[in-house]
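ugh ok so i messed up the first submission bc i forgot one of the chains. this is the corrected input, ALL of the components this time, i swear. 420 residues overall. if the numbers dont match what u have on ur side tell me asap before i send this to the collaborators (the ones from the other lab, u know who)
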Amino acid sequence: MPGSFLDRSASQFLDELASSAPVPGGGSTAALTGALAAGLVSMVGNLTVGQKRYADVEEEVRVLLDQSESLRRRLAGLLESDTQVYNSLSKAYKLPRDSDEQKAARTAAIQMALKEAEAVPMQIAEACVQVLDLCTPMAEKGNRLAVSDAGVAALLAEAGLRSAALNVLINLAYIEDEVFVRREQAKLDGLLEGKAQLKEQVYELVVSKL
Amino acid sequence: MPGSFLDRSASQFLDELASSAPVPGGGSTAALTGALAAGLVSMVGNLTVGQKRYADVEEEVRVLLDQSESLRRRLAGLLESDTQVYNSLSKAYKLPRDSDEQKAARTAAIQMALKEAEAVPMQIAEACVQVLDLCTPMAEKGNRLAVSDAGVAALLAEAGLRSAALNVLINLAYIEDEVFVRREQAKLDGLLEGKAQLKEQVYELVVSKL
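and heres the new structure output, hopefully the right one now
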């Protein structure tokens, strides 16, 4: 089906997700989850800036809001990228393999496409970490009436991060370049480290302010 | 803005989420997250049924698929319900409060609307638990090539559950009927119990099968 997944209705996106079509799948959903988290951070920001009661934190919240809006656009873009790299990988798998030369060329093309495919969920993971990092200051400074939305943002940013991680790992499982795999695994471990605890800290902060 | 949120494009849903408009917010997002999780369980199911290699588990997977599709529809419906109860609550807050009679009537209307508003995220939480319960058998029996999607489903179902929990708690914070609050708090605690661990179990199962 042509066109952007972001142009589909939410209802249609869910129908295509549930179908046996390979995209959208877990990778695109990780990006969408991160974008929803960023959107909720922005919502708290937009309910704070311009409010007299929050005039003293306005500048700080405006900076957080700029960052969450930038991350929301980035994650929406990564949702589309995820479906594009899937198509490249799918094309590589369909290359001919009649001769030894063709087999070698096909293997090389698949390996290159796998590395490109792995880069997308890694970028989704990085962006989700950045969204999660915005949740504590937004829950602390933002409009208290919307504090639960900052909490939901933290839950979704962390779930988006770990969903992206699974999609990094499934690509790494097929990549033969061991140096690349070790480097990416270390990068992923670094992104995941301490994030489940950070999410719980935001959750507790939010519950204390309800 | 009139019409169903599910009819909006994903892009427009994200824009409205990020805006200062009170809906969609964290509650609707919890329902959408649960629906995405259910959609991913269905995707694994749809990639399994009708496949020769999985003929021996076909009947079992078909039952799981029926359940995930039913939960997906239910969570999509709850997304809409969440915006409707918000509107009822908003109307109650706008009732006149010039006389003592009006004040008493307004307070009673707000308390009733709060109980109705609390019921929706509780139902979202219940549905998310049911989606999470489908993830282990689907990761065990379903098409192994899509096992990471069952893992993402578990991450999102648990995040949807906890997001819904925050939205139950924010309503309970304003409800004066202490018997009701205690009963609902106990119900919520029961829904949350052991679910973070269950999600981690599915995650480990999925990683072991990558």
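quick check: Chain B touches chain A through 54 residues (CB under 8 Å). that seems consistent at least. The CA atoms of residues 3 and 80 of chain B lie 10 Å apart.
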